[in-house]
Amino acid sequence: MTRPLFVHLGTSKSGTSSLQAGIWNSVEAMAAAGVGLPFRTRGAHLDGLLRPLGWRPVDAFDGAVDEALLAGVPARLRETPGDLLLVTNEDLAEVGPSQAARIVELASEADLEVHLVLTMRGWADQIPSEYQQFIKHRMTLTYPEFLGDVRRHSDGSGGEWAERYWRRQDPGRILDAWAGLVPAERTHVISVPPFKVDPDGVFRMMGEAVGFDDSVIERPTRALNSSYGVVEAEVWRRVNLALGDRLPDFVRDYGRNVRYPFVLGSLPTQASARFTLPPEELGWVTEYAQRSIDELRSRAYVVHGDLDGLLPREGVAKPLVVPTTEEVAEAAVKLVADFAVYTSGRVERIRAQGHAQGRASAEAEKPRRRRWLR
Length: 374
Known about the structure:
This protein is an alpha/beta fold. It is built from 15 helices and six strands.
């Protein structure tokens, strides 16, 4: 019997971090509900599927495909128990037609039928959220520059970060990659309500789309992947500028020495005013949202929630708060102090680990030394 494989594509910043954390913390409960998870962490998704398909941080699916690693995917899918299977990673929003076709092919080899799930929020929320997310990926554009690039993207003058934004957030482009591979009746579009309005919405609608009782998902008890305020984001942006070409490897160099320390507490989130969509950008965002809604409806996808909820809400557009030089300087000094504390703790952990390894090596050496002494 052919089982369904639900592929949750994202989009980024649509509640995916909380949803995934809940799912991965509920593996046994999900299994009892008949939902199999072939990949049980973000790292497992990256190592088991995305990187073999050529995914690279920032560059999306521009790398070489590793067919040797992909060859093991059908067996992994086939051997995962469950009435249905679920994979979830927002970077899958960036796959092109060739990667989509390969995923369908791998699923077919495992006797699985691909279904798609796309979670979305309105662009009045997504543009500010993705801006601070891209700062974590070494972007150096100011927020007004980023806004202008995203707006101008349609005429080809938007630049690389605008291209990445549209690649990750334009539902038509995302789902076009699967055209002819997965029919509309197996494509689910979730319009995620604002968290303050319905904090449970993304969990409930995912259960509805995939076909399981969402109450089995353990809800996270804290905010995940929180956004940065305008001051903290500006500090990080200036760090990116000051780095220039140094720390070139994103994962090994930048990730370990900048991104992870900042995210793990050296740079506080939501400590200053939030990014907003400025009123002067509201017109084109509203027009784009309406075109997207009309297009999604014309394609007859299975919709969960209210597509009109993707339109900018009344009062959502607000003038941007521009941080002062004094605010940025104060936050930068605090960052240096907190980074020093973080680094000290990391050094102590590494030192303790080294001592433990040294003791283990010494214990292993004792029998050999005794034999030598004889």
